[in-house]
Amino acid sequence: ETGVTQSPTHLIKTRGQQVTLRCSSQSGHNTVSWYQQALGQGPQFIFQYYREEENGRGNFPPRFSGLQFPNYSSELNVNALELDDSALYLCASSAGPLGPNFSEQFFGPGTRLTVL
Amino acid sequence: AQSVTQPDIHITVSEGASLELRCNYSYGATPYLFWYVQSPGQGLQLLLKYFSGDTLVQGIKGFEAEFKRSQSSFNLRKPSVHWSDAAEYFCAVVSGGGADGLTFGKGTHLIIQP
User: Given a cut of 70, is residue B99 above it in pLDDT?
Assistant: First the structure.
């Protein structure tokens, strides 16, 4: 069984640029969540996609957007990058959305984004 | 809004000694509570979770946690730590609706002394 994978591992961008991060969910999982982890902080929830629809969103501006594809892989897009966007971006997949019937989230290793 | 506080940024424990990592949460209803571990360069791994029922939950790697509603706490314990337990530990909570995702504490960095 293949776990959650993310690409790229590391990325360096400059302010104002746009970036796309990718996540392949674990086999059999239909839900992907994205988290931002700044240095020395806990992860912060960005949004969740369930069956290709956004199913919940944290306190992040609209320049953070996402997609989920029919194979349940996902992309996180960030426009107009700011210095504070420098962080580890974690993707987590699960067999269902967060909710009363919580399904365990399995995290990928993350993408380290540096904005100069 | 829900929140999680991990009062200890760093904890140093000797190998073989017992461990307790503290976690306090703020949430109106009964929360779903979790402990995750993150090793350098790795993603987060779930150690254990509490949804309801027995307030003492057992997890992987010999960890356990106790839910105390009266203290709004969910402390993580291990009777005897190993050098491989050195890592960052995160407590997290999610509401029953789940739309806000997991809310994490800032983490506790565990250092193991030989």
Answer: no
* E-assigned strand segments in A14-86: 19-24, 31-37, 44-50, 53-57, 64-68, 74-78
Q: How far is residue B61 from each of residues A26, A43, B39, measured CA to CA in Å? A: 23, 22, 14
Alpha-carbon distance values, A52 to A41, A61, A75, B43, B101 (Å)? 29, 20, 11, 23, 17
Share above pLDDT 70 across residues of chain B, in percent, rounded to a whole number: 94
CA angle A80, A78, A49 (to 5 degrees): 155
Closest CB to B101: pick one of A58, A104, A108: A58
CB contact under 8 A, B41 and A56: no
Q: Which residue has the higher pLDDT, A61 or A2?
A: A61
pLDDT at A101: 64
Q: Would you state the pLDDT for residue A97? A: 77
Neighbours of B51 (CB within 10 A): 16
